[in-house]
């Protein structure tokens, strides 16, 4: 979906940790060739399926099979120690696999539900009369729909990628990393609710054009920065608590 990110991120991660990844290398011909061949076999098998368009399971498996070939090639050239050290970059590559339409629709639906609920709560909190019917929110003068296009799925994936990178670079504790990524998913919904509520309130009290203007269509980055501003103190707190936890008391 936003696979162009990986063109720069993955080589950057490999370069950044090159000392650790390539500290111990050896050729693993049997395992490397075996895994690469299994990827090619999977690609050949899936390619025989009738449906290859975006959103199909076969298309997702095709991309996944390419990643298997890459893993096999890396293992062939550098060995298991290097692959173990490069586990995060290769696991990160899994995000390149486009989710099947059924799974993507479930994610979009969850974002729609969360964004609608939060927008409704924001309207109530600021004293704006609101009626809700499904994904329709009616306020005085306008009715908005939190449609699939308003689910902010792309922005949510971008925020997920950012959170994963942050945990890898700045956190060492597994449970803290899981907590931060989970909070990132929650903040993604909060950010989208703030965006929808802000645009609607601006259209009511400033200019109706806010619902169709540049801030609506091109202002996602602004609210993405809002999400980062919310998450940054949390990351600092988790990082600080992690440093404190490794300090053991000295017995006197």
Identify the notable features of this structure and list them briefly:
252 residues, mainly alpha, 3 strands, 70% helix
Structure description:
The protein has 252 residues and is mostly helical. The chain has two domains: 4-96, no CATH class; 101-245, no CATH class. 70% of the residues lie in helices and 4% in strands. A hairpin with a 2-residue loop joins β2 and β3 (142-145). The radius of gyration is 23 Å and the shape is globular.
Task: Give the count of helical stretches.
Answer: 10
Major beta sheet summary: 3 strands, antiparallel
How many structurally independent domains? 2
Q: Major sheet: order of its strands?
A: 1-2-3
Number of DSSP-assigned strands: 3
Order of helices and strands: HHHHHHEEEHHHH
Strand content: under 5%
Quickly describe the structure.
70% of the residues lie in helices and 4% in strands.
Question: What's the layout of helices and strands?
Answer:
Elements: H1 4-16, H2 18-21, H3 29-47, H4 57-85, H5 87-92, H6 101-125, E1 131-133, E2 136-139, E3 142-145, H7 153-170, H8 174-205, H9 214-218, H10 220-245
Antiparallel strand pairs: 1-2, 2-3
């Amino acid at each position: 979906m936003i696979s162009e990110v990986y063109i720069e991120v993955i080589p950057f991660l490999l370069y950044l940790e090159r000392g650790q990844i390539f500290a111990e290398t050896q050729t693993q011909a049997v395992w490397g060739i075996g895994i690469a061949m299994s990827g090619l076999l999977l690609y050949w098998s899936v390619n025989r399926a009738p449906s290859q368009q975006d959103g199909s399971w076969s298309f997702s498996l095709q991309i996944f099979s390419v990643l298997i070939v890459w893993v096999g090639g890396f293992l062939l050239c550098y060995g298991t120690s290097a692959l173990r050290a490069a586990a995060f970059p290769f696991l990160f590559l899994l995000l390149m696999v486009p989710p099947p339409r059924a799974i993507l629709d479930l994610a979009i639906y969850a974002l729609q539900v969360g964004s609608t609920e939060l927008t409704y709560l924001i309207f109530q909190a600021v004293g704006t009369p609101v009626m809700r019917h499904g994904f329709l929110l009616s306020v005085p003068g306008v009715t908005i729909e939190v449609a699939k296009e308003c689910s902010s799925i792309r922005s949510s994936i971008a925020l997920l990628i950012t959170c994963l990178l942050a945990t890898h670079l700045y956190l060492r504790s597994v449970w803290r990393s899981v907590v931060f990524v989970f909070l990132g998913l929650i903040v993604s919904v909060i950010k989208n609710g703030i965006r929808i509520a802000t645009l609607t309130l601006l259209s009511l009290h400033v200019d109706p054009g806010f619902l169709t203007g540049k801030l609506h269509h091109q202002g996602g980055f602004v609210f993405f920065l809002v999400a980062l501003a919310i998450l940054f103190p949390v990351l600092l707190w988790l990082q600080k608590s992690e440093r404190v936890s490794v300090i053991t008391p000295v017995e006197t």
